[in-house]
Design a protein that fits this description.
five-stranded mixed sheet, D-amino Acid Aminotransferase, Chain A, domain 1, seven-stranded antiparallel sheet, Helix Hairpins, 716 residues, OB fold (Dihydrolipoamide Acetyltransferase, E2P), 22% strand, globular, 7 domains, alpha+beta
Length: 716
Amino acid sequence: MSKLITDYEELKDQIRYHDHRYYSLDDPEISDIEYDVLLKNLEEFEKNNPNLISKDSPTQRIGSAPVSQFNTVEHLKPMLSLANVFTKDELEDFYTRVNKRLLTDYGYEIICEPKMDGAAVSIIYEKGHLVSALTRGDGFLGEDITSNIQTIKSIPLKLLSSDFIIPDYLEVRGEIFISKKDFKKLNEEAKRNNEKIFANPRNAASGSLRQLDPKITAARPLSFIAHGIGEIQGLEIESVKEFFEAISKMGIPVSKLNKISYSIDDCLKYYNKILETRDQIPFDIDGVVYKINNLEFQNKLGKVSRSPRWAIAHKFPAEEATTEILEVSFQVGRTGVITPVARLKPVKVGGVIVSNCTLHNIDEINRLDVKINDTVIIRRAGDVIPQIIKVIESKRQNPIDIEIPRACPACGANVIKENASDWDVFDGDKKIKSLGSKQEAEFFTENHVNKDLILKEVKNDGAFLRCSAEYKCDEILKGSIIHFVSRKALDIEGLGQEIISKFIELGYLKTAADIFKLHKYKKELYELEGFGEKSINNLIKSIEISKNIDLHKFIYSLGIPDVGESTSRSLASNFKEFKKIQNASFADLISIEDIGPKVASNIINFFKNDFVCLFIDDLLDNLKINRIKSPTLDEMPLLNLNIVLTGKLQKYSRDEIKENLLLNGAKVSSSVSKNTSLVIAGDNAGSKLNKATELGIKVLSEDEYIELLNDPKKFT
């Protein structure tokens, strides 16, 4: 029985460890599918041993029945609200007040954080176990939402042991939020189910927390990031930074955007950087927060009314404006997707004149109920094309319905909806998982402890329109060729958009491969306006030079969906040859650290397209693709070894180990397979270590890894 309990605790610890890697450190060691398999194995274990199920098990996040109302509870320490500043002068006033009260003019530490636009909560742990959670409420009284908080996967039910002592009592304050990507998916699903559409991520997060049934909360894509200190007993800390370091090691997520500053100028640099990259941050923010880092200084400064004197919020300028929709056109992208674009009455937003605004897809038009001549509110973030967030119906006059095209606006071919399929996994009659591709679903079932699982395809009505002509559409063809000749791809000078359009119109280019046949039209080119002998010769010379291309650039040039420059380099360095990439399995692809299930499925499906296969064959007849130079074993003694890292190492960081392995020629993968050469295992190694043992793969401890660095040939 003791062995059974030990196995159970180890399995739970493995999942907690991977939760910490994913949610707190944003550095997962295993793929989503591998994690799902691990969780399902835990569920299977608990199904067979129900007497062993503990409250802190990752499977027990939805253990409470619905309630009729929330209880009101007093905060041990008030949850204060922050005062706001909007200008440099106001920030300087804050800084002056702090200096005056601290009786100092030296540069003390200020911790800068993004100001998250979510729902504030207080989460309480006793001896490492989550015991309660409260909303902010009025700052003094909050509502008990413990059952709902327990459903959020980024919040640990049990703290991880760390270098810091687990305190007897720990109150962590932070923000519950829904990421931009998840919010979009949430509303898309609500639309499909004819449910209420959420106005914004903040309202969605707040409403989700106040559901009387925890199962509803669990179904919402909620996340958590800590940003404040409540009551602590049994842990001595001196600063906010030290607190963040401690709780992060305990498994609680902390923003990686936090930064220590020492002056107003440093704070303003941070503010401007966050403002400039606001659109790239995965969650909504409406400013930054400055806090005095030293806790003794915070206590000395105290508070005024309901705001602390030791912190201030620096709010962003408004990035919304009101304007009118003049017309709506439809554009065809290089992948064939047809996107509606609203032409606006020019308006200044965030310092920029805006005259165009994307409407994304048909579902977005229907969701907004937007029409031509409508007055709308638009929002701009960073340098991206703004989006319509609301129609002002009270100002609606002479509305004209947007006519959805039945034919491609570029070539006249039929327009089709871009449908997709989910793949549901069933254990008998019970659905246990829904996955986004057949390849992902098959991998899941193959690696699950239960080999009798059933797959069922669920077809979804897509939101995007697509031209049915594919590469026969001139606009799709033009987009693919522009991408093909771009600087990061073949880098062919002299082939701009206008010239490519002209060559397509004349019939010189029917695929990107026809670029290498343009020399046949040299006589005809002389007759075209703007083409002289020098420009023609330069173009042909540039085309000839491009025929000698590195593998990663060739991969990028193909325009595989979601395969950018970085992923192209990863594919090239791992597979070395193009044919191996073409024939790679799903398991081969997701074993590469920065390739997930979606990208892996896109790669496989891309190479299944008949047109693509013919096009690539034509390209390969014209190109010399340079393989990655193969160094000697003396230069790289770990050459071609496939190494997997797992567990917690004490002497080296994971990044340090990875860098050293790559420098010595090794490939670093995220999962163990029959192709794995060896595994480097630290503490709490878990499932990867077990699989390596099953397959008879050599496993090195941390000390043996250090020996490997000193004499790599010993392990080849």
